[in-house]
Specification:
5 strands; binds zinc ion
Length: 70
């Protein structure tokens, strides 16, 4: 888990609702924000999106959830 040792996992809310991991029900996530690269956006047919995305990685099972936009 070398990539994620620098910061602490956080609890997150989206649309006012506490986010839980769909796999293990954990409530703590490592957060990464960035741009989707063009090939990824095209692969997922997301050319309509602004390609700014938030990536939440479950601190327990490493399941990844992506949110587009802010
Ligand atoms: Zn999990």
């Amino acid at each position: 888990m070398g990539l994620f040792t620098k910061d602490e996992p956080k609890m997150m809310e989206v649309k006012g609702r506490q986010i839980k991991c769909l796999v293990c029900n954990n409530e703590y996530f490592y957060i990464r924000e960035g741009q989707l690269n063009t090939s990824t956006a095209t692969f997922f047919n997301l050319d309509w999106a602004n390609r700014s995305a938030t990536c939440m990685v479950c601190s327990e099972c490493t399941h990844i959830m992506w949110f587009l936009g802010d």
